[in-house]
Design goal:
CATH topology: Rossmann fold
Oligomer: single chain
Bound molecules: nicotinamide-adenine-dinucleotide
Mean pLDDT: 95
Strand order of the largest sheet: 3-2-1-4-5-6-10
CATH architecture: 3-Layer(aba) Sandwich
Low-confidence stretches: none
CATH superfamily: NAD(P)-binding Rossmann-like Domain
Radius of gyration: 20 Å
Length: 335
Amino acid sequence: MKKRILVTGGAGFIGSNLLLHLHEKYPEAHFLNIDKLSYASDLSYLDPIKGSNRYTFKKLDIVDRKAVRDIIRSYKPEGVFHLAAESHVDNSIKGPEPFIKSNVLGTFNLLEECRQFWKEDEGRWQNNRFLHVSTDEVYGELGEQGAFSEDSPYAPNSPYSASKAGSDFVVRSYFHTYGMNVVTTNCSNNFGPHQHDEKLIPTVIRTALNKNNIPVYGKGENVRDWLYVTDHCEAMDLVFREGTTGETYIVGGNNEWKNIDLVKKICDILNEEVGEGPESDYKSLITFVTDRPGHDFRYAIDASKIKEELGWKSQESFEERLRETIQWYVKRYNK
Ligand SMILES: NC(=O)c1ccc[n+]([C@@H]2O[C@H](COP(=O)([O-])OP(=O)(O)OC[C@H]3O[C@@H](n4cnc5c(N)ncnc54)[C@H](O)[C@@H]3O)[C@@H](O)[C@H]2O)c1
C-alpha cells in the first residue's frame, strides 16, 4: 500500500468504514480525511483511530479550489480515494445545486489539483493513483431482466445520478486526455453501520422502533442490489491497488431485493430481536407513500469483471450481515 492516502468524504457512511478498514489493514500507511462535515457526517465513527499518529482529519469543502490546491501540495498524497459527494437522491430532487457543485465541480477540483501536482515529477505521475467512487445509478434503470455491466450505456435519471455520471465522465477524460492514473468503481446500494438516518434501512428501523408508520415508496416493487459496506471497502482497496488504469469496475452483492420484501425482512428480524410478541408485528406499520419522481425500477449488477480480473467476492451471508446491521442501529436509536 502507498504511504500517504487522501480519503475524501471520510466522515460519511462508506468513507468512515473505509478509513477504519484501511487503517487496520495497512499499518505502514498514513491517512488524511478531508470532509466538509455535512448533515450526513459523524466524526465519532472515527473515534477508534482518532488518536492514531497515522490518521489526520481536516475540515475542507472540495468545492473550494484553493483549499484543495493547498491540501494537495502540503500533504502530497500518493493515492486518493474520492468518496466526498452529496449522496441522497431525494435531496437532489428537492435541491440539485449542491449535487452539481460537490459531485461535479468538487471532483474536477480534486482531479485537476492532483494532475497539476503529480505531473511535476515523472515517478509521482506514473505511480500515484486516483480512485473515484461512483454508483450503479448512472446506468439508469433495468426492467425485470438483465444486469448492469461496465459496458452498459449511461442513462442517469435523477439529479444525483446525473451529477455522479458527470463526475465519472470528468474522471474518464483525465485518463483519455492526460493519461492520468485513474480508476473508477460503480457500486450498488451499500448497507451496514454508520449510514445516515435518511436512507432506507435506517429509516425502517428508526420508524419501527418509534412505532411510527414505515414509509415505502409506491408499492414497494422497486428492486435494489444490496452490498455490505465492508465488502465494498475490500473492493475499493483491491481496485486501488490492482485495477487497470483508466478502467471502471462495477461492484455488487449479487443480492437483489424488492424494497417491500427487504422492509418485511427487516421487520421480521426486529420482531425477533426487540419485538413484543405477535400482537405487535412491526410489519403492521408498513405504509405505502407516493412514489419518488423518476424512481428507477430495478438495479442489478454483473460483477464478473472485478471477480475474474481481481479475485474479489462478496460475503455469502446476507441475512447475518443484515441482522448485525439492525443490531447496530437498534443500539444507536435506543441510546
Ligand atoms: N451509500 C451507497 O449506497 C452508495 C452507493 C453507490 C455509490 N455511493 C457513493 O459513495 C460515496 C460515499 O457515499 P456515502 O453513502 O458514504 O455518502 P454520505 O452522504 O454518507 O457521506 C458523504 C460524505 O461526503 C462529504 N461531502 C459532501 N460534499 C462534500 C464537499 N463538497 N466537500 C467535502 N466533503 C463533502 C459529506 O460531508 C459526507 O461526510 C459517494 O460518492 C456516493 O455517491 C454510495
